[in-house]
Design a protein that fits this description.
Helix 4 packs across helix 12. By secondary structure, the chain is an alpha/beta fold. The protein has two domains: 164 residues, 3-Layer(aba) Sandwich (D-Maltodextrin-Binding Protein, domain 2), CATH 3.40.190.150; 99 residues, D-Maltodextrin-Binding Protein, domain 2, CATH 3.40.190. The protein has twelve helices and eleven strands.
């Protein structure tokens, strides 16, 4: 009997060791055996794509995996959102998105094929992109205050380009119109590139845009920066005042980018991804590349990102409802 019990205990010990080994293999598979798909909702060459590729290699190193950037453009982010929401919920498919697809689309569109809260799990904030008001080099205004003063002198007001109805540039313009009481006429374009072209040519008076997409034109002298839609000045443009400094508080518009994955992804995998993103965003090579572009590297906990998304959905939803903005 004693030998039988001893044999049984030995067998259980071996089984327990094997089980621990299997658990260990399962846990390490996430870090060592996967290809991570980093989905971007816009074509190659755009700002979202730039950020994805700026962080992708280092993120892969942090996870011990290969990160592949996949561009799934169209439908204002809906195609990418659906793809990620329906992907295997194991943390191997990530979505890098700007604020629009997760906090502006829901109040803007009556029907969406995805629900950011129901279908997606927040991982971490990645960058902040504050909006910059620019005018053509021939425009007489040198500050946002002068731009507004000139708009008030003209019966027809000032024309303001945007990258599309309901876009962050459009909503930033609406914030400025509200606080300044100036007549700002919205002129929507299909993307930022044609809007910028017409501002440079003087066909439109002004444009709000992400600093990374404008800084090259500013440095080349083609656009004049006259106001920052944030609570502090930008390190690349330290001479440009915020609207609050010019007596127009509340013009605060951040087109942040963040990472999400499928909602049912296990919390342990979410935590691994979050920690990997945090390490990535503190890597000097990644930080310097993003800062040079005008983007501000950032990270957050999943809960902080969820709260940011909730707050911005309420903020932009109010603007959309108050202004009766409808999608194109």
């Amino acid at each position: 009997m004693k030998n039988e019990n001893s044999t049984r205990r030995h067998a259980l010990t071996l089984l327990g060791g094997a089980t621990v080994g299997l658990v260990g293999l399962t846990q390490s598979a996430f870090a060592q055996g996967k290809t991570i798909r980093l989905v971007v909702a816009f074509p190659p060459g755009g700002p979202d794509d730039f950020v994805a590729r700026a962080i992708g290699e280092q993120l892969g190193k942090e996870l011990g995996a290969q990160v592949i950037v996949e561009n799934k453009a169209g439908a204002n982010g809906a195609i990418a959102a659906e793809y990620v929401a329906r992907a295997t919920a194991d943390g191997s498919t990530l979505w890098l998105t700007s604020v629009g697809a997760v906090a502006i689309n829901p109040p803007l569109y009556e029907k969406l094929p995805y629900d950011p809260v129901r279908d997606l799990a927040p991982i971490s904030l990645v960058v902040n992109n504050v909006e910059l008001l620019v005018v053509g080099s021939a425009n007489p205004a040198n500050t946002g205050a002068e731009f507004i003063a000139n708009a008030k002198l003209k019966k027809e007001g000032a024309t303001m380009a945007s990258s599309g109805t309901g876009s962050v540039p459009h909503l930033a313009m609406e914030l400025l119109a509200d606080v300044s009481k100036a007549n700002l006429v919205h002129v929507p374009y299909k993307g930022a590139a044609p809007a910028i072209t017409d501002v440079i040519a003087g066909h439109v008076d002004g444009f709000f845009g992400d600093i990374p997409g404008l800084v090259g034109f500013v440095k080349a002298g083609k656009l004049k920066p006259i106001g920052i839609a944030a609570n502090k000045r930008h390190p690349l443009l330290p001479e440009v005042k915020t609207f609050a400094e010019m007596g127009m508080p509340g013009v605060d518009s951040d087109n942040w980018y963040a990472l999400f994955t499928a909602r049912a992804t296990p919390p342990a995998d979410i935590d691994k991804l979050n920690q990997a993103v945090k390490r990535t965003m503190t890597t000097e090579a990644v930080r310097s590349k993003l800062l040079a572009s005008g983007a501000e590297p950032a990270s957050s906990s999943p809960a902080e990102l969820a709260a940011l998304m909730k707050n911005d959905t309420a903020k932009w939803g109010k603007v959309i409802r108050d202004k009766k903005i409808k999608p194109e």
